[in-house]
């Protein structure tokens, strides 16, 4: 499982995941906020299965 998410993309995913997860506790207080785990976990892991399927990588090229 090679990393396919770049640094900026990882930070954005972690922040977005935390914001979406906060919807469980504040705001509309809906369980839809649990979807925030998806960007949070992919950001922490540095790997996105959807990027792999699409053949996309935001990681800088390794030489």
Topology overview:
Elements lengths: L6 H16 L14 H9 L3 H6 L9
Provide tags for this entry.
0% strand; 63 residues; mainly alpha; 49% helix
Short synopsis of the structure:
With 63 residues, the chain is mainly α. Helix content is 49%, strand content 0%.
Q: How much helix, percentage-wise, in residues?
A: 40-55%
Main sheet, how many strands, which sense, barrel? Answer: none
**In total, how many beta strands?**
0
Could you name the ranges where pLDDT drops below 50 across 5 or more consecutive residues? none
Report the sheet-strand fraction: under 5%
Radius of gyration: 13 Å
Counting structural domains, the number is 1
Mean pLDDT reading: 92
The count of helical stretches stands at 3
The oligomerization state is: single chain
Judging from the principal axes of the Cα atoms, what is the shape?
elongated
The SS-based structural class is: mainly alpha
Question: N- to C-terminal separation?
Answer: 18 Å
Order of helices and strands: HHH
Explained architecture:
Helix 1 packs antiparallel against helix 2. The protein has one domain. 49% of the residues lie in helices and 0% in strands. The protein is built from three helices and no strands. The protein starts with 6 loop residues before the first helix and ends in a 9-residue tail after the last helix. The protein is elongated, with a radius of gyration of 13 Å. With 63 residues, it is mainly α.
